[in-house]
Amino acid sequence: MKMKFITIDKKDWAKGIDKSRETYQLFGPVKDENGCRIDALGADVQPDMNYTDSVLSAKSVLFPQSEKILTTSLDESVEDHHIMKRADTDYTPRAVIGIRPYDAKAVLLVKMNFDTKDYRDPYWCDAYEATTFVGLGINRPGPFDFSTSTGSGPFNEDGLDILLADMDDKFLAKVLTSKGEAFAASCGFDVEADAKESQVLLDVLKKEAESNITAAVETDKLAGKTILDLHEAPFWDDISFSCINCGTCTYVCPTCWCFDIQDENKQKASTRFRNWDSCMAPLFTRHATGHNPRGEKTQRVRQRFMHKLKYFLDKYEEGIMCVGCGRCVKSCPVNIDIREVAKTMNGYEKQE
Amino acid sequence: MGNLLEHMGIEKDRVHFSWISSAEATKFVDVVREISEKVKALGPNTKFVKDYN
Amino acid sequence: MDTCIEKIRAIARDLLEKGTVEKVLGFADGTIPMATSPIAITSKEDVDKLTFTSTCGLNLANYASKEKGKIAVIAKGCDSRNLVTHIVENQVQRDNLYIIGVPCTGMVDKVKVASAIEGEISGFEEDGDTLKVTSSLQTLTVDKNDVLKDNCRYCTHRNPVLYDELASDLVEEQELDNPFPDVDAIEALDPEAKWQHFQDLTQNCIRCYACRNACPLCYCPTCFVDESGPQWVGKGQNKTDVDTFHFLRAFHCAGRCTDCGACVEACPMGINVRDFTRKLNKDALDMFGWEAGLDITKRPPLDAYSPEDPNDFIK
Fold first, then answer.
1. What's the rounded Cα separation, in Å, for the pair C249 and C263?
2. Chain center to CA of A59
3. Same domain, yes or no, for C47 and C123?
4. C312 pLDDT higher than 90
5. Using CB atoms and an 8 Å cut-off, which of residues 218-247 of chain C contact chain A?
6. Do both C80 and C139 map to the same domain?
7. pTM, whole model, 2 decimals?
8. Alpha carbons A243 and A298: distance in angstroms, whole number
9. From the list C32, C36, C267, which residue is nearest A144 (CB)?
10. In whole angstroms, what separates CA C154 from the centre of its chain?
11. What ipTM describes this predicted complex?
């Protein structure tokens, strides 16, 4: 598909977004007194395109915090009783407007888990296929953004269907996929811009944005170390001391996808839910026998960083399971910093 | 606890406390009647009710 | 509170050198502006990592009760009261604690500071009561008293109530005519408005349990929300389940909460969960004349029976 560039005058933006509601359910950044979140956009709500960052990522669009997956009736007089059927979820086309490039890359990382050659998670994958990602490049990355160290970046295109660049009085849109093309058409945005010029403009913006990123994560030596060396390293007790084992880091992280399945019944109706769960929770790995292989806090904290920075890296060889959004760094109540941990792991040499 | 519930907006007459020994059958009947009347007068409760959908 | 950093380090160095304690629990500078991180120092060479600023809003008593062996803890007024509660509740032995008391003039509310300035905060400096906050778009000078955490504004126990050594001079306690104006404001609403207030309060809750885990009082091996046989509370995002978690957790802390504000400090969504516990603190004071953690010999009111206990609510 030939890359197409569209110019969108900001005066036409809101109208176009509203027109797209005929075809798409819209999601986007919404601000309230507690900060910003990516939420479903009500009928008269426009996405806040001036937001800096959202506390929670966009992962809830494809992976809601609490999702009904199966239902059944326990009433034995009903024909299909006790047979679980897939819950009625609305998979009509959706669009996430203003998603950050690192969140879109995170979607691709999560996809490696939910869409494998052995199994395709129907709930996540159906939602993914129904969603169009309209990304917004970050002109001024904040102090927590270290996306360039993780293979992403403020104008990275991975996982996006359209990349928007905010150019004061207009948006420059780079249409990357046919899904993106369809979305632009549904808004009625059709003022084409010269492809060569536009790419140059984008590259300039990208360079400037990337030069603003001061935070970095060193990961070049991680692949070369053995899992056992890192696992048995002596620094985990120090790193994990302050951790309070809440679920904050895992819940704000766009690449974390662990979940718990729970049934909730009321009288004769039964529903099976999938809820977010966190490896930080003390009972996360508790077996039915009562044994808990990660009953100690140090084990859980170590597991989280090993998973993100080592196991995933080794398994898929596509880089670390982190996109550098910095949300965990910002939200952690005790300021455990994944950048510091990565540095410690990266620089660790086993003492013989 | 009654105070905290009231603070949250549950009407005062919805939650009642009473010490009743198993030997005080009459008191039990009286208290239950009184509470039933008071709660019924408030109508159906809409707070702290879990909807299962 | 700047001068006490040197004193804290000196005390810590001395304790570790003499082997009086195995660890010193304190705060270290964070990796991002306005952040500090709890730390356990085990060797005297590391004491310079210790710091103490107006951004040390977490409660170290939370960590103290989980340590075995003899430790030193840095305790502000509220933290020391939680240590007293821990001793009363048998979570820690008095002999295993060396309390470094730090009289406190209040901690800074990071959300208030962030909303006062435009752009993401990239720098934060403190000089007495004057705070200098920088972002990519501006530099702001703020008086600390304008951006204090809510619990610090109403604090009447700034000085540690139990300590082995003080890191600075005692400070003057605040005299407040009404220490609970926020509770009164809610009490003045009609029931529907009250309900709406609490519904709005918890609507962003993501059940991360940071509030519970940061709270020194929440030390149950298995919290009621984690129980599954029987399961008391759903684990999803149903509003009633979320409300039940907050309501019941507050009630489990009734008469024990010292309003240290660690719960609000820890919450990633900025929810003021103290609205639940403050009402109970006020009731404890009104009904039992009780404030948590002031007396090492007394048990909390919900834990002890007296014939004079108020019972006009019982038929």
1. 11
2. 4
3. no
4. no
5. 222, 226, 234-238
6. no
7. 0.90
8. 9
9. C32
10. 13
11. 0.90
